[in-house]
Amino acid sequence: MNTTVITRVADRQWHALEDDQVVGRGEVWPRLDGRLFLSIDSWHDAAFGRLADAMLADLPRPLYTMVDESDRDLRSQWERAGFTIRRREWVYVLPTDPQVTGLGSAHPPSGVTILPLGEADKDPLRTLDRTIRDEVGARAGWQEMPAEVLPRLDDATVVDPTKYAVAREVESGEYVGLLRVAPVPRQPRIGLIAVRADRQRRGIARALLAEVLGSLHRSGVRTASAEVGELNLAASALFDATGAERAGSNLEVVLH
User: What residues contact residue 92 under an 8 Å CB cut-off, 6+ apart?
Assistant: First the structure.
């Protein structure tokens, strides 16, 4: 029987070896908010278990990872390691054609204009981003938001303003809403859509979505994707109303 040997090959990386051949890899990395997330890729269950044991023995708690909910085998492996479900994210696929989404007639409210992707100024965009993050933190908290939009420890909230469309008040010039797009190959991903608390329920989020999806459609992109926390009913309702389909779900699991 082959003996599996676990070696920590770097500060954040482990290898599982059998007969000097790599049969599994483990990695840990801190997300933007400082939480530690794990990843294990193994050739068989025994290597996964040995890697998990070695990594968990070396690392502080709590620890997190994301699992495709439909991957029952992988989910079971993490559960055997002691991880439990903390939250669920729905994975949406959104059509971009305004004749399908019904967003062709969606316009911002009076006194508000939408700046297309790439036209926002960095300083007011960062101000809005911090305001929205403070508001989220005071309510549900960033623990309920998708991991990729969590606050950064270094407070560098907006790295690339060209990825944002923005709602701006005409009279004051203030930015009051934003939508960020990650240019993932073949299917762009909507990473964040948010409106300042005192400007919500006026159709601003719908207008931002109409602008971005319409722009993608004109450039030949047929669909976009998005992840929405299960408890974010407002975002789910917005996407459902555009004909978006739930293509799956991810689970965030944790070991305390």
Answer: 225, 226, 227, 228, 239, 244, 245, 246, 247
Q: Where among 67, 89, 111 does a domain terminate? A: 89
pLDDT in tens, 12-29: 999 999 998 999 999 999
| End-to-end Cα spacing for the chain | 34
Among candidates 239, 136, 146, which has minimal Cα distance to 197? Answer: 136
CATH code for the domain of 244: 3.40.630.30
Domain ends where: 89, 113, 138? 89
In terms of domains, do 121 and 229 share one?
yes
Q: What is the pLDDT of residues 197-253, one digit of tens each?
A: 999 999 999 999 999 999 999 999 999 999 998 988 989 999 999 999 999 999 999
Strands 189-195 and 223-229: parallel
pLDDT digits (tens, 9 = 90+) for 124-137: 999 998 898 888 77
Q: Do the domain assignments include residue 224?
A: yes
